[in-house]
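Quick one, tokens below. Sequence please?
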């Protein structure tokens, strides 16, 4: 009888082994080794990290890096030289033509109620045309959505359209609140211009109630030149004040002046460095962020953090003696903010060269405390990624779930590649996003280093287990 029970137990064990998914057959010994490697990565980042010092230079010595600007070129040359100094196996610049929009002198805006003048904080949206040199003064129509503006139609003619939709504070994930409003900023001028509006002002995309306007990209779509109208962001504090006064004085007039202009496209570059794989050199795992930023801050969180973290991933591999099986490539994309041309060019050349990208990771959500990763991948690979939760959870990386990879790596999407987005805590991100407050002093050294270690750990696991 004992032999029968033993035989039955053996058969059950064999069936269980055969039914296991191949990606889940990671034994305890392997998990133990992975834990040691990941712990070493974090120890190195927290005791011998360089990302914070690099960000200090990028933010404070170079500053805001709008595509086409001298600062963007300085950042490209600095990061190329840094990768060379770190002795990556290969470093090069990838040519990209980028838009060259220039803000000009500081914008001004005000409105009057009776004899009281209210000066308000605005900034031109990226890609906008200027006002006439003397500025414009018009009555204001307030709306809370693109749809409402479209319904008003011809009533917008000759007016300044004021898009005033606050963030939905009930969203725990603040990127959802941003996603619910961003179409006002991007498409407001297209709608206003189509109906003959004189200009557009858009409530800044932030939870904060303050006097810092947040810039960002806008588009005229297919509007003809004579339909394009000047467009600016207004601070949330000023937006609330204007809304309040409009209720009391519906015919009040708003004045604003901006002198931005669009210059001819400029030659620029993506910056690329790599560690060549020891077993599968033709299979590529990309990690990156965007090296350009808006011009009114120094781009520390968006996306200086992603730039220095991505470089640090490869450095952490070298310092810990990790010789990757696949080629690990760091890409610093140009022109994410107002065109995405760097990401598109990288994917275009990868396709033209028939490169085999098996995974890509993007950091473009700030340098705050790590929370996890989102991924866009096949169901089979998803099971593998979810099985890593016990390895990453000790470092606060609990949120590993399906979702968006990133804007710059998005053009790489195919049936075979897995795209990842690094997700730090998002609660403070939109306090600084695209505003003059996005500066180096808002970044915490330890949080930044934890993020670099988190990214390096994920890349290590991808290199170890992806085929």
């Amino acid at each position: 009888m004992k032999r029968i029970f033993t035989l039955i137990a053996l058969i059950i064990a064999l069936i269980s082994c055969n039914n296991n998914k191949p990606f889940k057959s990671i034994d305890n010994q392997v998990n133990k080794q992975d834990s040691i490697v990941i712990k070493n990565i974090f120890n190195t980042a927290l005791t011998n990290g360089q990302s914070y010092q690099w960000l200090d230079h990028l933010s404070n010595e170079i500053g805001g890096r709008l595509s086409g600007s001298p600062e963007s070129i300085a950042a490209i040359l600095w990061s190329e030289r840094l990768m060379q100094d770190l002795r990556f196996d290969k470093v090069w610049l990838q040519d990209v033509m980028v838009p060259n929009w220039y803000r000009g002198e500081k914008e001004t805006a005000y409105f009057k109620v009776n004899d009281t003048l209210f000066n308000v904080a605005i900034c031109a949206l990226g890609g906008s045309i200027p006002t006439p040199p003397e500025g414009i003064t018009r009555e204001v129509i307030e709306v809370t959505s693109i749809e409402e503006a479209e319904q008003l139609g011809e009533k917008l003619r000759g007016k300044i359209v004021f898009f005033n939709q606050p963030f939905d504070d009930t969203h725990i994930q603040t990127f959802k609140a941003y996603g619910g409003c961003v179409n006002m900023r991007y498409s407001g001028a297209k709608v206003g211009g189509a109906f003959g509006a004189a200009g557009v002002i858009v409530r800044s995309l932030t939870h904060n109630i303050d006097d810092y306007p947040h810039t960002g990209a806008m588009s005229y779509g297919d509007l003809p030149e004579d339909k394009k109208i000047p467009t600016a962001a207004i601070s949330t504090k000023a937006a609330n004040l204007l809304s309040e006064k409009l209720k009391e004085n519906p015919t009040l007039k708003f004045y604003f002046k901006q002198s931005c202009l669009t210059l001819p496209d400029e030659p620029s570059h993506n910056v690329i460095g790599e560690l060549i794989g020891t077993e599968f050199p033709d299979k590529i795992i990309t990690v990156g962020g965007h090296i350009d930023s808006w011009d009114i801050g120094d781009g520390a969180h968006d996306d200086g953090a992603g730039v220095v973290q991505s470089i640090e991933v490869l450095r952490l591999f070298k310092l810990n003696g990790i010789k990757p099986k696949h080629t690990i490539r760091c890409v610093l994309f140009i022109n994410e903010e107002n065109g995405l041309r760097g990401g598109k060019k990288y994917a275009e050349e990868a396709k033209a060269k028939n490169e085999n990208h098996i995974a890509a990771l993007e950091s473009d959500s700030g340098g705050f405390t790590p929370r996890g990763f989102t991924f866009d991948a096949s169901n089979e690979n998803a099971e593998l990624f979810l099985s890593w939760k016990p390895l990453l959870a000790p470092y606060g990386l609990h949120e590993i779930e399906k979702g968006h990879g990133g804007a710059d790596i998005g053009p790489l999407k195919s049936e075979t590649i897995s795209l990842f987005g690094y997700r730090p805590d998002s609660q403070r991100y939109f306090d600084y996003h695209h505003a003059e407050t996005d500066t180096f002093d808002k970044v915490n050294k330890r949080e930044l280093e934890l993020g670099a270690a988190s990214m390096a750990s994920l890349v290590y696991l991808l290199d170890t287990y992806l085929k």
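Confidence is low (pLDDT under 50) at residues 1-26. DSSP finds 14 helices and 16 strands in the chain.
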